[in-house]
Amino acid sequence: MSFPTESVVVPDVVLRIADGRRVTPVWVNELGGVTFSVAGDAFVKVFPPDHAALLTAEAVRLRWAASFTAVPRVLSTGPGWLHTAALPGRSAVDPHWAARPLEAARAIGSGLRLLHDALPVDRCPFDRPSWVPDDAPAADRLVVCQGDACAPNTLIGDDGRCSGHVDLGDLGVADRWADLAVATMSLAWNFGEAHEEELLDAYGVGPQHGRIAYYRERWAR
């Protein structure tokens, strides 16, 4: 995902939802999806038809997770689009936090720990994240993973603490290192240097290099 660098056509469904309020494209992804901010208090994510099912899966997961932790509240959804309420805070890769990478790394780590502790494995109706194989090694600790724990998907409040998580379309049960391996890997992409120690320390765990390598390799496939 990245910030838009070119002009973006606003789809009719977004204009209808906005109903005259200010619309700003804020994220684009490699699938051709675009996320629009509506007046700063809601978002509409729009995907191409061949990836529309991903948003259906995300809406179901958001509704389930919202009972346990801070995730966007689903306001409405339809074929190829998802309308959610905004959460407080900025993305961990917002320029404000990109200029404070150590603080951001710690917030990502502590935020993942809060997420993993809050979501109940025994009540989760979803299988493993799509990229995690069913013959993965025995888990260090089985949790409900965010599924796409790259830095942009953690929100950070003005107090420097995680204020929620977004993009939960691949949420599912797996070893916590499925999230931690991806989260630590994404630090260098988004901040220009790795701050793995700070992230893992904030999570409350020491590095397990074998598990990190395993899940990073699966993520890259």
From TrEMBL:
One of its GO terms (biological process) is response to antibiotic. The active site is at D148. Mg(2+) binds at N153, D167. Residues 131-208 form the Aminoglycoside phosphotransferase domain. The keyword Transferase applies. It holds the Pfam family APH. One of its GO terms (molecular function) is ATP binding. Keywords: Antibiotic resistance, ATP-binding, Kinase, Magnesium, Metal-binding, Nucleotide-binding, Transferase. CDD domains: APH. The keyword Aminoacyl-tRNA synthetase does not apply. It comes from the Bacteria. Belongs to the aminoglycoside phosphotransferase family. This is Aminoglycoside 3'-phosphotransferase. It comes from Mycobacterium yunnanensis. The lineage of its organism: Bacteria, Bacillati, Actinomycetota, Actinomycetes, Mycobacteriales.
